[in-house]
C-alpha cells in the first residue's frame, strides 16, 4: 500500500492575532451595529431626558435654565395633579392587567386545541390588536354614546340604564379599560396559546389516568407550567398599561374632569401642549422608575416562588 | 389484579380505521407484550385499554366488567409513558403522590404509600429531586414508581425503555421482570424491540395494520410462526426467505416460499447443503460471525457462524436440519411439512 502523502506543513509562525483575540474582534464586529443603535436611539435619549428633567425649559421661549431637582419636588410635593395622574395610572393598570390576562388565558384554553373553525376564532380575537387605534376609538366612541349608543341600547333591553360612558369620570375609566382590554387581549391570547401547546399532552393523560379532574389538572399542572409565560405577559402588560397614550388621547383626551388623565398622557400634555419640556421630562423619569420598580418586584416575586 | 378481555375492538380516527377488530384474552397476572412495526396501532390499543382514547367498536372487559364507557381513573389501570410524563414542576415525591392527592388521600397516608413504593424501586434517595435532576434510568424508575403507588389492577407500559441506552435497557428490563414477579400484577407492555418482547413476555401479541397476526408464547412464535410476517418479525437476525425453487429440499404441497433462520444454517462444502453461494462479506461480532452469502439465484442469505466465517469470495454450501425449515404458501400462510 502506498504511504499516505504527508500534508504540506502550514505556516508555523504564530498568527498576528491569537485565536481568542480574533474571536473577540469578530464578536465586537457583529455586536457593533446593534450597540450603536442602542447608544444612539436608547441610551442617548435617556441621558438627554435626565438632563432636560433638571432644567426649566420652555419650548416657546427657547430658554433653558438649570434648576436641579426642582421639577421632581414640584411634582411629588406641590402639584396635586401629579398624584391624581399616578392614581389614575394605577387604577388603569390594576383594572386592565388582571382582566386582560384572565380573558387571554380563558380564550387561549378554549382555542388551543384544534377544532373546526378554530382559526376563524383566533383571527377574530387577534384582529383588534392589529387594527388602527384611531379606527378602534372611533367605533367605540360611537358604540358608547350616551342614550343612543349601541351598548346602552343593549343594556336597556335587559332593563339596565347604562351611564353616559365617556362623560362621567369613573365610567370613562371603566370604558377605556374595557375597550383597551378587548383591543389588546388577542396578543396575550396568542402567547398563552403557544405556551399551552408547548405542554406535552402526556401530562394531561397521566393526570387524568390518576383521577384528576379538569380543574385539578389546570391548577395542579397547567397553571404552574404556564408560570414563566404568565410572568412575561404580566410584565409586558403592566408596562404597556403604564405607557398607554393613543387610546386615551383618542377616546377621552384625559377627561372628563381629568378622570382618565394617566401618566403618559400627562407627559404629552406637559411637553407638547404646555411646552414645559423640563417638567415633562421629570414626569417621564418618574414613570420610568415606577415601571422599572414594578417589573423588578414582579421578577423578584416570581423568583421567590420557584 | 384482573383479567382483560378484548372482543372485536376497533378504532377509527375520522375515516381511517387504525384498529380493525382485535380479540384478546389476557389472564390475571399475565405479562403480555404487544409488538409490531411502527404505526401498527400498539399505542392506540394501549390507550384504548387505559381509556385515553374512546373505543369505536367492540367490547373491553376488565374482570368481566364492561369498561367501554368507564372513566380512565375508574378502570384501575396505570400507565407508564414513553416520555415518562413526569410533572417537571413537582419533586419525585410529589409526582408519585399526585394521584393520591387528587383522589383525596390524607397527607400521612400519601407519604406512607409513596415511601412504600419508593422502597420497592430503591427511589428513597431521589424523593426530593426534580425530574430534570434525574438520569434517564432514574426517571424511568420514578415513572414506574408513580404507576405502582395507585396499586393498579393492570399496568400498561408504552415503550418504556426506548429512550434509554442499550446497557440501561437490559438492566431496566430485568428490573421490570423482577417487579412483575414480585407484584404478580397483570401487565401489558408495548415495544418494538423484539428482544424485550421475547425476554419479558408470557405471551406476545404480534400486530400489523391494526390486526392481530398471532398470539403465543415467545417459543411458539419463534418456532411456529403462522405466517411470513410473524416469521420475519420474530427472531434476530431476520429469517431468510427464499423461493422454494432455490433450495434442494422437497417442498410440501402449496409452498412457494421457504424460511431458513440464520442461526439454523451451517456452512458446508459446496453441493453438500441445501443451497450454494459465494460469501459476499462477513461481519465479525465476537462470539459469532454474521456471514452474508450471495446465492446463485441472486438472493442474499444470512448465516450465523461460530467464530470466524470463511473469507470473502469463498464458494460455500449451506446446510440445515430439515426439521428447522419453515414453508409458506402464496398468501404468506405457514404450510406444514407433511
Ligand atoms: N390522534 C390521531 N389522529 C389520527 N390518527 C392517529 C392518531 N393517533 C394515531 N393515529 C394513527 O393511528 C395509527 C397507529 O398509531 P399508533 O401510535 O398506535 O402506532 P404505534 O404502533 O404505537 O407506532 P409506534 O411504534 O411508532 O409508536 C398510525 O397510523 C397513526 O398515524
Ligand atoms: Mg407507539
Task: Describe the model.
The complex is a heterodimer of chains A (306) and B (338). Chain A is mostly helical and 306 residues long. Chain A folds into 2 domains: 21-66, no CATH class; 70-305, MetI-like (MetI-like fold). Chain A contains 13 helices and 2 strands; from the N terminus they run H-E-E-H-H-H-H-H-H-H-H-H-H-H-H. The model of chain A has no long low-confidence stretch (mean pLDDT 88). By secondary structure, chain B is of the alpha+beta class. In chain B, the strands form 4 sheets. In chain B, strands 6-7-8-3-9-10 form a 6-stranded mixed sheet, sandwiched between helices. In chain B, strands 13-17-14-15-16 form a 5-stranded antiparallel sheet, with no helix packed on it. The longest helix of chain B is centred in the middle third of the chain and has 18 residues, at 166-183. The radius of gyration of chain B is 24 Å and the shape is elongated. The two termini of chain B are 43 Å apart. The mean pLDDT of chain B is 91. The A-B interface holds A 200, 202-203, 205-213, 216, 220-221, 224-225, 227 and B 47, 50-52, 72-73, 77-79, 81, 83, 85, 87-89, 98-99, 101-103, 146, 150. Adenosine-5'-triphosphate binds next to helix 1 of chain B.
Helix and strand arrangement:
The complex is a heterodimer of chains A (306) and B (338).
Chain A: H1 19-52, E1 55-58, E2 63-66, H2 70-78, H3 80-111, H4 118-130, H5 133-143, H6 150-157, H7 169-198, H8 201-209, H9 214-225, H10 227-243, H11 246-251, H12 263-273, H13 277-305
Helix pairs in contact in A: 1-13, 2-3, 3-7, 3-10, 4-7, 7-10, 10-13, 12-13
Chain B: E1 4-13, E2 16-26, E3 31-35, H1 42-50, E4 57-62, E5 65-66, E6 77-80, H2 92-102, H3 107-120, H4 136-149, E7 154-158, H5 166-183, E8 186-190, H6 194-200, E9 203-208, E10 211-216, H7 218-223, H8 228-233, E11 240-243, E12 257-260, E13 266-268, E14 275-284, E15 288-295, E16 300-306, E17 315-319, E18 326-328, E19 334-335
Parallel strand pairs in B: 3-8, 3-9, 6-7, 7-8
Antiparallel strand pairs in B: 1-2, 1-4, 4-5, 9-10, 11-12, 12-18, 13-17, 14-15, 14-17, 15-16, 18-19
Bound molecules: adenosine-5'-triphosphate and magnesium ion.
Adenosine-5'-triphosphate is lined by residues 13, 18, 36, 38-44, 192 of chain B.
